[in-house]
Amino acid sequence: MKHNSIIATAKNTIEVEAAAIRELAAFINDDFANAVNKIATSTGRLVVSGIGKSAIIAQKIVATLNSTGTPALFMHAADAVHGDLGMIQKDDVIIIISKSGDSPEIKVLAPLIKSFGNTLIAIVGNTASFLAKQCDIVLNTTVSQEACPNNLAPTTSTTAQMVMGDALAVCLMEVKGFGTADFARFHPGGMLGKKLYLRVADLSAQNEQPAVTGNATINEVIVEITRRRLGATAVVNSDNSIAGIITDGDLRRMLEKTTDFSVLQAHDIMSANPAVIDAARLAAHALEMMKTRDISQLLVVENGLYAGIIHLHDLIREGII
Fold it and tell me: 23, 93, 196, 279: which could form a disulfide with 184 (CB 3.0–4.6 Å)?
């Protein structure tokens, strides 16, 4: 295929699927609200099932639900009738996902679940199907066409299923008041987790705490900055409150202005009112402050007093960036 044909096909695929998602909004009704409330108030788990490509979508929806505060597990529709039905407990809510709603496995599974007395919800692309008629609540994911040129391969339909699952998960988050602190508890690993739980104090505590008084000589300032290896030193008052900061950039600017610094003291070259951050703030917030101010370190305070320095390198090392 020529490049222009490939590009046109790709764009058409996106446009077809985007149109289907826009149309999906019309299917959000009282049934959807009832499904959210039923799941939210259930004392059991949410079991999500499907066959074929719908099974793959079911697994993704389960992963999203578990990470956003709704306990869920996946049950393959084919395996269910060969023993996996045993995972269903009496208070569980069951979701079956299917485009046609008439797959042989679904026709066997749905009546069995109904006989258990569990609430059964369908995410289905055919509201006149066997599955839809068996379920207590029906979430409509009908699409007018697949993005596949033959209108056969599950493309638009699976996208609609996934979006309906996302809508459920987000609504359940709001109903349950699931916030960033809860999200952090479930995502402690990797960069995302660190952004949500790593505090400034966790990083600054690993660093030296360079500090000089306002009447320190320039020689003393240079020694403190080089010895602590953070590219800066705090200038502190007698009560350990912060008077200012001196960075290696301040030293360079001083040298550009004078060759005789023997009479200068720290307070002569320091930057007063430096950017500071509380030790209890998230490290991700420190990164935003550094980006906004175009600086590479922040002075850390605890109870209003100097408590150290957090450096851009700390954030890079921890994968915050």
Answer: 196
Burial (CB < 10 A; 0-12, 13-18, 19+), residue 278, is: middle
CA–CA dist 101, 303 (Å, integer): 62
23-42: b (≥16 Cβ within 10 Å) or e: ebeebeeebbeebbeebbeb
Q: Which two tokens stand for residue 288?
A: 């935003």
Structure tokens at 88: 């269903």
Would you say 318 and 283 are in contact if contact means Cβ atoms under 8 Å apart?
A: yes
The per-residue pLDDT for 286 is 95
Closest CA to 57 of 172, 171, 147, 161: 161
**What pLDDT, on a 0 to 100 scale, did the predictor assign at position 165?**
97
pLDDT at residue 319 in the model: 81
Token readout for 198 is 């790593």
pLDDT for 148-199, tens place per residue?
889 888 999 999 999 999 999 999 999 999 877 666 666 666 666 677 778 9
Interatomic CA distance for residues 249 and 262, integer angstroms? 19
Angstrom CA distances, 187 to 193, 198, 243, 261, stand at: 5, 12, 39, 52
Report, as ranges of residue numbers, the positions in the chain whose pLDDT lies below 50. Answer: none
Between the two ends of the chain, the Cα-to-Cα distance in Å is: 40
